[in-house]
Write a structure and sequence with these properties.
GO biological process, one term: terpenoid biosynthetic process
GO molecular function: 2-C-methyl-D-erythritol 2,4-cyclodiphosphate synthase activity; 2-C-methyl-D-erythritol 4-phosphate cytidylyltransferase activity; metal ion binding
Largest sheet: 8 strands, mixed
Number of domains: 2
CATH architecture of the largest domain: Alpha-Beta Complex
Protein name: Bifunctional enzyme IspD/IspF
Family: Belongs to the IspD/TarI cytidylyltransferase family. IspD subfamily.
CATH superfamily of the largest domain: Spore Coat Polysaccharide Biosynthesis Protein SpsA, Chain A
Number of strands: 19
Shape: elongated
CATH class of the largest domain: Alpha Beta
Distance between the termini: 53 Å
InterPro entries: IspD, IspD/F, IspD/TarI, ISPD_synthase_CS, MECDP_synthase, MECDP_synthase_CS, MECDP_synthase_sf, Nucleotide-diphossugar_trans
Radius of gyration: 25 Å
Length: 394
């Protein structure tokens, strides 16, 4: 008998997003992590950046005790379940609360400031790669400006050799950083740490420096919001996809439209459940990704898809977009038919589409029109649909 060595499984990583601060210096009348940044709350962009990374297996957000309504209003739809923890009076306490909330089966944790919404996949990749050989890793940028001492006047200079501007996410092997924070807590004489690298080093952990990114700035003042907006405008990848589909009527007592069962004297025919609304939006997403259409990924010749519920196809397209770093920001669907009447069911359709697309219902449009009794839809032989979807990669 030949013995084989099992293939080691890749370590599973969690993103711990620290959002418990007040952050009022940025203005806006609310904590900066909930302020709008180019049409989305800051924290929504931060969560989405980690949710889109394929190596992240869990999401934990540590919020202030008073911020449950703010987070509920700001949180985006996500691929992963979002675990909430309530922070403490200091950053140390908030991180400890987040570490305690990480689900079982996680090996690595990336601790990130909620106010750094422009973190890139490349920065995350660098931290994760370094954790293969180090207890901890964190991105940083070398200090390139001259350093002075003084107040109103310059009183001295400092050598900048070997100095770095720290960023997040700061990544660690989960048991090691939990032990480091426990030791930090047990020493009442030790002051609050500036970041988790300080906690880790005090516990004897080795922390690698990985490449940072100038765009990975921490929003602190109103000017930082302006700078972040300009950065997003220069690097944003915006895609628009269109979808069109038709299904004919046949025997049945209802039609499935946008995941909603609509009573009707006939049903729609197709290899799956023939939900022409979901099919059209799915094809629009594939189109924006230049990834073919439903038939490319779910061939009608494959019997396993016979009678399948169409939300399976749409979920696949949404996951594919997220894996490539795209957020779906808007979907507009037009159903073309004489009957059934769409108006009474439009709100339910919008709600179900928003759920499947993982976006707010206010970003989903479902409307209907007729062809004035012209053509196959006018003769009530079937239903056609047209959809446009917008995808954005920061």
């Amino acid at each position: 008998m030949v013995e084989t060595t099992p293939t080691p499984t890749a370590p599973r990583a969690a993103a711990l997003i620290v959002a418990g601060g007040r952050g009022l210096r940025a203005g806006g009348g609310m904590p900066k992590q909930y302020r709008d940044l180019a049409g989305q709350p800051v924290i929504a962009r931060t969560i989405a950046a980690f949710d889109a990374h394929p190596a992240i297996a869990a999401l934990v957000v540590v919020r202030h005790a008073d911020d449950a309504p703010l987070l509920a209003a700001a949180r985006p739809g996500t691929r992963l379940p979002l675990v909430e923890a309530v922070g403490g009076a200091t950053r140390d306490a908030s991180v400890r609360a987040g570490l305690d909330a990480i689900p079982e089966g996680i090996d690595l944790v990336l601790i990130h400031d909620a106010a750094r919404p422009l973190v890139s996949a490349a920065v995350i990749d660098g931290v994760l790669a370094a954790l293969a050989t180090h207890d901890g890793a964190a991105p940083a940028l070398p200090v390139t400006d001259a350093l002075w001492r003084g107040e109103a006047t310059v009183t001295g200079t400092e050598d900048r050799t070997g100095l770095w501007r720290a960023q997040t996410p700061q990544g660690f092997r989960l048991p090691a950083i939990r032990a480091a924070h426990a030791a930090h807590l047990s020493d009442p004489a030790r002051p609050a740490a500036a970041d988790d690298v300080e906690v880790a080093r005090a516990h004897g952990l080795t922390v690698a420096i990985t490449p940072g990114d100038e765009a990975n700035l921490k929003l602190t003042t109103a000017a930082d919001f302006d700078r972040a907006t300009r950065l997003m405008e220069t690097r944003m990848d915006i895609r628009t996809g269109n979808g069109f589909d038709v299904h004919r009527f046949g025997p049945g007592d209802h039609v499935m439209l946008c995941g909603v069962k609509v009573p009707h004297g006939r049903g729609l025919q197709g290899h799956s459940d023939a939900d022409v609304g979901l099919h059209t939006v799915t094809d629009a997403i594939y189109g924006a990704l230049c990834a073919g259409d439903i038939g490319t990924h779910f061939p009608p010749s494959d019997p396993q898809w016979k009678g399948a519920e169409s939300h399976i196809f749409l979920t696949h397209a949404v996951d594919m977009a997220a894996a490539q770093g795209f957020a779906i920001t808007h979907a507009d669907l037009t159903l073309i038919c004489e009957r059934p009447k769409i108006g009474p069911h439009a709100a339910a359709m919008r709600a179900r589409l928003a759920e499947l697309l993982r976006i707010d219902m206010g970003r989903v449009s479902v409307k209907a029109t007729t062809t004035e009794q012209l053509g196959f839809t006018g003769r009530e032989e079937g239903i056609a649909a047209l959809a446009t979807v917008t995808l954005v990669k920061p």
